[in-house]
Amino acid sequence: MSQQLESELLKLYQQQLEVGVISQDIHNDIHKLTPITQDKALKFYIQHNPHRVLRGIADIPNPTPKHIIKYKGGIPCFLCMDNIQVQWPNEQGHHCTIDDIPLVFLPNLYPIFPLHFTVAAGTHLPQIMNIPTLITLAKTLPTHWIIQNGPDAGATNPEHFHYQTFLPSNLPTNLPITHYPTTPIIQKNSLQIDRLTHPASIYRFQFKTREESQSVTTILMDYLDRNPNHRLNILATYCPNKAQWQLMALLRHTERRTDLYRSGQPGYAEAAGIISTTTESHDRWIQNNLTLYTQLMTDIAAPKESETDFQTIISQICS
Asked: Is the pTM of this model over 0.85?
């Protein structure tokens, strides 16, 4: 299934690019990356990608049926297939069932990464964490990274259950997040959990069995359940050669500073290590905002007591 799905997604992306559903300009933008090393340790990329604001400000091209579900701000949900067929009739998706869940792979119209897809539920379901299916998707698409942003954890509009998949192939040596040193938290059999040396609260889970994946799922869901302010982003991948999953879990908190955000910039794929700017060139962003990435990462980090609680959960479940 993996190779066939990879082939189908590539064909679909190329077709949507050819008919103009995906802008050629924004497709070119995703390859414009400037590498930054800050304080001799913190690595990230800046991507000048002004077209990403288009989805949020675009006029709805066609009348919308009254039954279409709307998301925050009253805008019709752009992941509902009924809505897509009315508003963007040339937009197509690839339907696939994963873990008995009907999903549709939709090329992201305003991508940050190569072959960037939104993987949406076939019907309008609320955005909830589904880590087992995230893990299945990672094994199904082993050359891709799979993202899930939990409810209210970053760019989760529309509130329609979805994942994102992409290829990290435009980066010189994979995602910046893969290069940070780590502090070991626990190792049991093939399950290893580490804390990244990073301003944000990022934990790496490596494991090889489904039983271990269940333990990882329990740890992360317990973290969410313990405190209503807890939030979570996950990036997942699978290495067939090692028969090993890797999850990068970014622990977040709802209490965030708002003074760091200015209209139109920056937008960022925080845990992946890419800042996608919309209004400033690379050089101007570097000149004016070089320390902003550190501030942003510190801002979204879970508070110390939450991290302590998280490590207690790990010890309890893995003991």
From this structure: yes
